[in-house]
Amino acid sequence: MGASTVGRRVLITGGTGSFGRAMARCLLDRGVGEVRVFSRDEAKQDVMRRTLADGRVGYYIGDVRDYDSVERATRGVDFVFHAAALKQVPSCEFFPLEAIRTNVLGSANVIEAADRNGVGSVVVLSTDKAVHPINAMGLSKAMMEKVAQAHARNRPRSGTVVSSVRYGNVMYSRGSVIPLFIEQIKAGVVPTVTDPGMTRFLISLADSVELVEHAFQHARAGDVFVRKAAACTIGDLVAALCQVFEVPVKYDVIGLRHGEKRDETMASGEELARAEDFGDFYRVSADLRELNYASRVAEERVDCRYLSDFNSSTARRLDVPQLVALLRTIPEIRAELASWAPAMML
Ligand SMILES: O=c1ccn([C@@H]2O[C@H](COP(=O)(O)OP(=O)(O)O[C@H]3O[C@H](CO)[C@@H](O)[C@H](O)[C@H]3O)[C@@H](O)[C@H]2O)c(=O)[nH]1
C-alpha cells in the first residue's frame, strides 16, 4: 500500500474547481490533517469556506503563474494535487500564451516549489487532449507532462515524486457540455451539437478523484497514469440527456469549435507498448535513461513494439440506454431533475 493522507498536509491548486472540491471532501472524510485550497478567486473560496465549514481547510489566494505565491502555500506540505489550469479548448486557441503561462510555466512553478519545500508527492492533472495534441490547450498540457517527466529525469535524487494523470471529459464539470445541454433543454432551447459523430471519453468526478488517488499511491517519478474510460458520441450524449429530461430528441448542428478534434486519444501506441496494466488504469513509466543512446546496445533487451492508440473512436462505446443509466447516477444531474417539470415545456 502506498502513502496515506491521514493526518498529513495536502495542497490542491485550482482547489475551488469541480475536482478540487471533490478531492477536498474525500481527503477530509479520510482524516487528512490539513487541506490547503490554492486559487485566484476569493469569491469562490468564500463559497467553499461556507459550504465545507471545516477548520482543517485553509484558503490561499494566489496564482500558479506567481512563483512566490505557490512557494508560500507549499511550505510544510506533504502532498500536492495540481489541478489549476486553463482547460477550455476554444478560449486557449484565442489566447495560447495564456495557456503557456498557466499550464506550462505555472505547472513548472508548482513542481519547483514542491521540490524546494521537500513535498513527498505531486500529482499533476493532464488530459487526453495532450496526446497527439492539435489545440493550444492540449499542447500546453503535453508540455506540462514533459516538465513533470523532465523533473524525474534531471533530478534523480529529489525527494519529490512527480507524476501525471490523464483522463477524459468529466461529466458535469464546470463549463463543460453536459451542464450546457441541460441548461438549453430546461430553457426550451434546441441543444447545439458541434458534430453528432464526435467521440469523447467520459468519466465521473468520483472516478477522476479515484485515479488521482491511485496515482498518488502508486507513482514512481515521471509516471503517467491513464484511465481506461469508455466513450460515446456527442449525438448519443444529447439524445440520452433529452431522454433523461423527457423531452423529444432534437438538436442543431453548429460545426467544430476552434481547435477541436473529432476523436481523442488517451494513450499513444508507443506509450501503451511500455505501459503496465492495473485493471482500470494503465501506468506509463517515463524513459529515465540518459542521452547516450549508443550505450543501449549493451542493454539486455531493446524493445521495439508498437501498439494501436487508445482512441475514443475505438474504445468501449456507451450506447444511449447505457448513457441514460449512467447520467442518472450523477448527483448534479439528479439535483437538476429534482427541480424539473417537463410539462412546463408544453
Ligand atoms: O455547444 C456545444 C459545446 C460542445 N459540444 C461538444 O461536446 C463535446 C464536449 O465538449 P466540452 O464539454 O466543451 O469538452 P471538451 O472540449 O472535449 O474538453 C473538456 O474535456 C477535456 C478532456 O478531453 C478536458 O481536458 C477539458 O478541460 C474539458 O473542457 C465536444 O465534442 C464538443 O464539440 C457540443 O456539441 N456543443
Automatic annotation (TrEMBL):
Q: Which UniProt keywords apply?
A: Isomerase, Lipopolysaccharide biosynthesis
- Pfam families, alphabetically? Polysacc_syn_2C, Polysacc_synt_2
Please give the name of this protein. UDP-glucose 4-epimerase
Q: Which SMART domains does this chain map to?
A: PKS_KR
Similarity comment:
Belongs to the polysaccharide synthase family.
Show the InterPro entries listed in the entry.
CapD_C (IPR013692), KR_dom (IPR057326), NAD(P)-bd_dom_sf (IPR036291), Polysac_CapD-like (IPR003869), Polysaccharide_Synthase-Rel (IPR051203)
What EC number(s) would the UniProt record show?
Answer: 5.1.3.2
Q: Which GO terms describe its biological process?
A: lipopolysaccharide biosynthetic process
Record keywords: Glycoprotein included? no
User: Reaction catalysed by this chain?
Assistant: UDP-alpha-D-glucose = UDP-alpha-D-galactose
Q: Name one GO molecular function term.
A: UDP-glucose 4-epimerase activity
Q: Domain named Ketoreductase: which ranges?
A: 8-169
Which Gene3D superfamilies does the record match to this protein? NAD(P)-binding Rossmann-like Domain
SUPFAM superfamilies, alphabetized:
NAD(P)-binding Rossmann-fold domains
